[in-house]
Amino acid sequence: MNTLIVAGGEINKELLKNMTKNISGQNIIAVDKGLEKLDELNIVPNHVVGDFDSVSKEMLQQYQKNPKVTFHTYNPEKDNTDTDIAIQLAIQLKSLNITIIGALGKRLDHSLANIHILKQALEAKIPCQIIDKYNKIYLIENTHILYKNRIYGKYISLLPLTSKVEEITLKGFKYPLNKYCLQVGVSLGISNEIVEDIATIELKNGILIVIESRD
Q1: Which CATH number does 139-213 carry?
Q2: Would residue 60 be called left, alpha or beta, if left means φ above 0 and alpha means ψ between -120 and 50 degrees?
Q3: The predicted structure's pLDDT at residue 74
């Protein structure tokens, strides 16, 4: 079963509506304030995770009375963020795919951390992506195929998550590469575009952050 994690960052209402059209086929995990966003659409999550420092007591009590909702409550002074805990839960639920919305927003530290913790799903061999109105973000560590008619936005950016990513080869892109070593601290991988129907990203060692963006 697929899992949708609704975190407490900025969420486009129309995007959330589209992501929850078929809730019967997925787990929904509300992360702290993400519960309020789901409540606005009358969507009941399967799980609620967090320290609940940003949700009203009235709303918490309302959902705590629902036997279909499982609560996972944590102390605010903890080592892991709420979204981190939600990803761990999604992995424990043996999710086939994990999508996270509300993972980006005003707090840059949280946004960066949420990109980094995608590594947990990568290590568990579970496809996992952060999506907002303008971006789709995920990690890769081996060959990845992109179809021009399916990408989230026309711009494809590549950034190293590890200190370097070795022997990157790009085919079907406006700016191709051949066994290039991309290191932290350079912007070479920003704003590429797919020019063929199918494009491939190949690499030998390391982990790449892939961002499909639209204006």
Answers
A1: 2.60.120.320
A2: alpha
A3: 82
Burial, 9: exposed, middle or buried (Cβ in 10 Å; 0-12, 13-18, 19+)? buried
Q: Choose between 53 and 49: higher pLDDT.
A: 49
Residue 24 has pLDDT above 80, yes or no: no
Q: How far is CA 30 from CA 17, 54, 118, in A?
A: 14, 13, 17
CATH of domain 2-133: 3.40.50.10240
Given a cut of 90, is residue 38 above it in pLDDT?
yes
User: How does pLDDT run across 133-157, given as a tens digit for each residue?
Assistant: 999 999 999 999 999 999 999 999 9
DSSP string, 64-75: HT-TT-EEEE--
Q: Where in the chain is the domain with CATH 2.60.120.320?
A: 139-213
Q: Where in the chain is the domain with CATH 3.40.50.10240?
A: 2-133
